[in-house]
Amino acid sequence: MSGHGTPIPMTSRPCGPLKGEANVPGDKSISHRSLILGAMAVGETKISGLLEGEDVLDTGKAMAAFGAEVINHGGGNWSVHGVGVGGFGEPDNVIDCGNSGTGVRLIMGAMATCDITVTFTGDASLNGRPMARVTDPIALFGAQSVGRAGGRLPMTIVGAKDPVPVRYEVPMPSAQVKSAVLLAGLNAPGKTVVIEKEATRDHTERMLAGFGAEISVEETGEGRVITLTGQPELKPQVIAVPRDPSSAAFPVCAAVITPGSDVLVPNIGLNPTRAGLFTTLREMGADLTYENEREEGGEPVADLRAKFSPNLMGIEVDPARAASMIDEYPVLSVVASFAEGETVMRGVKELRVKESDRIDAMATGLRLNGVEVDEGEDWWIVKGLGHGNVPGGATCASHLDHRIAMSFMVMGMAAQKPVSVDDGSPIATSFPIFEPLMGGLGADVVRD
Ligand code: S3P
Asked: What is d(CA 312, CA 84) in angstroms, rounded to the nearest whole number?
């Protein structure tokens, strides 16, 4: 696949203990939403700690193309002068969301109830991902779409001129789809209702409430019922973006499998809809502690300490937890390789439609590195070899997927032989400081 310019082959060599503080970047989900909701508010939203990864920068460019003023003040401080709900103007060119499924799906929702026509595209990974999951519900509001076969990008969406509110039950566990429907509902008159059977990350609901929208969430027999009153005036906010638990996963997992390690990851967002990996690691016997637990900007936050954990055991991961750790299965499968016995992961069909087919990408790379894996459509089992017994030594394909590239870099830190990836360039989408940060802790990650 191509799409990120020149590939950057990378190698991670076995290293000594990882020690120190890992100041990981801002949360990707909250960063996208800060820019989009800032663009839909009236006035100036101030954002600190924004993730300045390619995915989020693409969303910032898109918001500017819709007419918001997006200003980078340096050091992660940004401001957005919004155009108000329903105020998006028609961009005069194609909106390129790069590698970002979150970016494109949330923006499609946000523009679907505006009287404008927009063409979206992305890189080879994004242009292969399913978009019908968003175009189906936005059609109910009155938006039309034309894309490539299978509902793929590039795709043009004609926003609804006279939108109507919608009641929609999200058919798969997807915060992106839920959020797209809620953002579309913002410019529809009356009440839009979204029902999700399984709880997914709830940043959109929390942030909409913060921006002054009338939104309620009810836990019922049919699931989480979210009711949003359309056409509010969103009030600009001051947002401090917490650090990303999905990025923290990499130094945390690296510390857990690398002998002698002791790493502190300060100020991590620990929203329960995101923290499933840490619960799972503890069940496997990982030495993780939360320090200084607190609440910041409506999100629970703590400092997370991870230490080398020599007696990891394989477990059956609770499928009910899948949505709360959906982006962390690749790096969990690396930790599982260093555990004794099998780690069983079920109910994870969504992994097949991420930036890559993550079950296939990880299973193939783990096997090349000497770890046995069984897999089916919505499950996989990693047969752990125990600490010190993972051979390594192979080069894996990252398939334009940042989390696949970083997972294999983590594996190389504690395997017997180095582990390489054919292309580490996608890491810049979510964790642009991965190499210096891991190097500062003592990892030996180099560009070949
Ligand atoms: C995200 C939701 C998840 C996740 C993605 C970010 C979000 O996708 O994989 O990295 O910010 O809403 P799905 O909602 O499609 O599972």
From this structure: 51
